[in-house]
């Protein structure tokens, strides 16, 4: 079975170097995405990753994950947001930094909040789908995964997939059905 977020967090708290590498590989893209959505500069993103990891690791952290109180994605998002705003506040001249954000088209208004939340949810779903595909990749033929990726991630039509891979359209539908049947329970378990 794939490593659950809870198991990964337990290993992080135990100081496992492998768990740190797994966490970094699994969540780095999402941390960077959220930091950019919150208006961080490129030179602040490495600091964000470090502070998020430290926050999760600290035994006495205020932000301990408790699965009974909410979803991991909300827990992670809260940590990223708070550490992002900490970094913005640390800028030498906060007023100038906020003006710089505005000049770049980044305004932290309620509309931006809604857009950032929507962006986070979309990227989280993509993240889960990719994790699920990787998890079942040893159990499913490579061509089935290719077909599924073309349909679900590149938005090819079944006819386009058939032409691209030089197969029958019926084979595309069969592969999609098999993949969905296998991936749905994994996605459900990952997003619980």
What does this 3D model show about the protein?
It comes from Lentisphaera profundi. There is one protein chain. The chain is mainly α. It has a domain at 1-109. The chain is 74% helix and 0% strand. It is built from nine helices and no strands. The chain has helices at residues 5-13, 17-37, 42-57, 72-90, 94-103, 110-136, 142-152, 158-165, 169-190. Helix 2 crosses helix 3 (42-57), helix 7 packs across helix 9 (169-190) and helix 8 (158-165) crosses helix 9 (169-190).
**Largest sheet features:** none
Tell me roughly what share of residues is in helical segments. over 70%
Number of strands: 0
Radius of gyration: 20 Å
Coarse shape: elongated
Backbone structural class: mainly alpha
Compressed to H and E, one letter per element, the order equals: HHHHHHHHH
The average pLDDT value, as a whole number, equals 81
What is the number of helical segments per DSSP (H or I, 4+ residues)? 9
Query: What portion of residues belong to β-strands?
Result: under 5%
First and last CA, distance: 15 Å
Q: Which blocks of ≥5 consecutive residues have pLDDT under 50?
A: none
InterPro entries: RNA_pol_sigma-70-like, RNA_pol_sigma-70_dom, RNA_pol_sigma70_r2, RNA_pol_sigma_r2, RNA_pol_sigma_r3/r4-like, WH-like_DNA-bd_sf
Keywords: DNA-binding, Sigma factor, Transcription, Transcription regulation
Family: Belongs to the sigma-70 factor family. ECF subfamily.
Organism: Lentisphaera profundi
């Amino acid at each position: 079975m794939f490593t659950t977020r809870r198991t990964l967090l337990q290993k992080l708290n135990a100081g496992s170097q492998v768990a740190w590498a797994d966490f970094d590989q699994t969540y780095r893209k999402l941390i960077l995405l959220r930091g950019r959505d919150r208006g961080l500069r490129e030179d602040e993103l490495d600091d964000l990753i470090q502070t998020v990891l430290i926050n999760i690791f600290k035994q006495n952290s205020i932000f301990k994950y408790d699965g009974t109180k909410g979803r991991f994605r909300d827990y992670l998002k809260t940590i990223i947001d708070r550490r992002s705003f900490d970094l913005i506040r640390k800028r030498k001249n906060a007023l100038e930094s906020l003006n710089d954000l505005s000049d770049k088209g980044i305004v932290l208004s309620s509309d931006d909040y809604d857009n950032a939340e929507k962006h986070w949810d979309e990227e989280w779903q993509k993240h889960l789908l990719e994790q699920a595909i990787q998890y079942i990749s040893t159990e499913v033929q490579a061509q089935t995964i290719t077909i599924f990726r073309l349909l679900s991630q590149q938005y090819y039509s079944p006819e386009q997939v058939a032409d691209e891979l030089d197969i029958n359209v019926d084979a595309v539908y069969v592969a999609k059905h098999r993949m969905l049947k296998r991936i749905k329970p994994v996605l459900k378990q990952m997003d619980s």
